[in-house]
Give the backbone structure.
Amino acid sequence: MNLQIVMALTPCLVMLATAMLTIASPWQDARGWHRFNRAAMISLILVILAMTNVLTQAGNIPAQIDTNWALTVTPLQSVLAILVQFLGWVIGVFSTRYLEGESHQRRFVAALSLVLVSVHLLLIADHWLLFAAAWSSIGLCMRHLLCFYEQRPFALLASHKKTVADMLADAALLLMALFAYVETGSMRISVFLEHVSSHGDSQLVAWCACLLVLVVVLKTALLPVHGWLIQVMEAPTPVSALLHAGVVNLSGFVLIRLAPLMEHYAPARHCLMSIGLITCMVASLVMLTRVSIKVRLAWSTVAQMGFMVVECALGLYTFAALHLIGHSIYKAYAFLSAADVVTQTRLKHLTGKPRYYPWSFWLAPCITLGIVFAAQAGLAHAMWPAWWNVVLALAWAPLLWLHQQSASSVWTQWQSIAFGSLVTLMLTVVSLLFHTLPLGIQDHPHATDTPWMMVAMIGLYSATALIVLMPARLGRLHRWIYAGLYLDEFYTRNVLKLWPISWGKESHANR
């Protein structure tokens, strides 16, 4: 076993030992959390050292594969390992005070530690069975966190619906592994990807691509199986932060990892793009109709996941990786500071009714498009296709009118646009710099998908502006959007018919 594999496995062993000690030793709240936080910090230092070692050799060795242990280490995996361990440490520190005095804290710490272990194994696994087992164990551990308050029926319902989706996804992933083994005679993921890149499409490869789309839809909470991600608000805030900032983002990494598979079967890629666009559009519109801060954040996650899979379907995997990292950091901060956000929102509502300026909705894309083109023009060569600038301009345009609901005059409105322009410029520079990092990601932009992608993005932006500007005039349509087109109700009824839930006496009494 080489040094990089050892350094990648060490954080897993540290967190696994923490989970075992938590289960075996007598529980004392302060001491138990101190043990977890110290172990999480040690693991964070270890993954940083591992990433440094990997990046120094990235130019010579793009990936390190241990043939005996079926593990692989790449620069992207190292970066994501740091992100995961950092979020785990932050959530642990936050939970120390947040859960003070609560029962079942030992179970919480053990489950959180095992989630981190499973995510680390998922990132470095190069064997189909290890890969599937790691992803499945994440769902099993998350169930204990989602049901932390066992007396809350909606928490049980959300966990139940997530369990059903995970079971279907796990079955599809195992079937995909079987097809890959039949196709190549090996259980190594790297061997399968090399075979796909060399020999192209076949019947089994096509089936693997279709199954991958199904797995991503189920694991990422895309429409219509998104409801459990909205209802996990019944769980403690640290659990929401972990789920929205880390767990659901893993499908983006899987799509980047299995990029050759999607690139060799266009129908699966187009299906994924369609589902992602619909999810992004519906979730964005629903988010604008909700009042609860945490529910808005949950719908925002659904929309962001839809847009992330669209990026992968378009072959822009570097953008998807940057989106994954940025979304994880933002959502962790948003959920862990939700109390402050609620206070600020209430203060804004006390100042008067939200006010929007229609002209800014159509000026914003023009400004963001100019900023993106200007930033990219300063380089000797383009980092991404020119047509993607239009997509970025539409995606970042809301930054220019995001704060205008508190604007009391045209002058403050222009201040909001100036602030949004500065943020857009910073995001563009970060994107350009991220493309220069040696992460081993290869983009495959598909120019043939450009026309209808442009139409879809313009339609999404226009519909969003319409919902914001004229909510009262839309009548029944507005009510349907508020209800999420009743897609979750349809999914919930069918799940409960397929597998009825046992509520228990205490939770049944509280319904």
The two ends are 54 Å apart (CA to CA). The mean pLDDT is 83.
